[in-house]
Amino acid sequence: MLEVGFSHFSAREVAKRVGYSIGTLYNVFGSYDGLILAINGRTLDLWRGHLETRLKAVEDGDDRLAAAINAYFEFAIINRHAWTALYDFRLPDDIEPPDRYREKVAAIIKVVEREIAATLPTARKTDAPALARSLLATVHGHCFFALNGTFRMLGEDNPLEAARERVADALAKYL
User: Fold this and answer.
1) How far is the CA of 170 from the CAs of 55, 78, 86, 92, 165, in angstroms?
2) Residue 97, Cβ density class (10 Å: 0-12 exposed, 13-18 middle, ≥19 buried)
3) Which of 24, 56, 72, 136 might form a disulfide with 20, Cβ 3.0–4.6 angstroms?
4) Residue 96 CA to its chain's centroid (Å)
C-alpha cells in the first residue's frame, strides 16, 4: 500500500511477497476487506504515533494545535499512499467496520479533542468533541487539496498556513 496506493493495490501481490497463497491470506484476514482494514488499521496506529510524537516535542508556550496540524500534513505527505488509502477504501454500506478499527479512528479523534479542549475555556470544553470532528475535516480538506494539486490550481500558495488560520478562526468563536 505504501508503494502503490489503494488504486493499484493487489492482495495477490501481498500474498506473493509474503510467500502465502491468496487463499491463506484471506483465511488469515477473513476477506479482502479484512486485509485492507488491517493495513489501514496499521496506518492509523502509525498516524497516531506520529501525532503524539510531534505533540510531545512541543515546547511550553508553543501552539500545540499548530503542531498537530503540521503533524497531519507531515504524515500525509510522508505516507501519501497509505494515508489516501484510509479514505479511498469503503466497506459495503451494509457492513460496519469492526470495533478494533473504530477504536483506532476514535483514538486519533481523542488526541485532537484533548488538544482542542485544552484551548477552550472551562464553560466550552463540552464543545471539544464536535469541534474536533469539524476541525479535523477542515484540516483534512486543506491537506487533501494540497496533495492532489487543487490548491495550486486555485492559487493557494500555503495550504498548511491556510489550515492553521481556518482552525484559529473557528476556535476564536469559542474563546
Assistant:
1) 21, 27, 26, 34, 9
2) middle
3) 24
4) 19
The one-letter amino acid code at 142 reads H
**Dihedrals φ, ψ of 157, to 5°?**
-85, -25
Task: Specify whether the CB–CB gap between 108 and 51 falls below 8 A.
Answer: yes
Helix, strand, coil fractions of the chain, as percent rounded to 5: 75, 0, 25
CA dihedral of residues 29, 33, 39, 42 (deg, nearest 10): -90
User: Which of 120, 163, 171, 122 has its CA nearest to residue 143?
Assistant: 163
Per-residue model confidence (pLDDT) at position 65: 96
Residues of the chain with pLDDT under 50: none
Give the up-direction half-sphere exposure of residue 166: CA atoms within 13 A in the CB hemisphere: 18
Q: Are 65 and 111 in contact (CB under 8 A)?
A: no
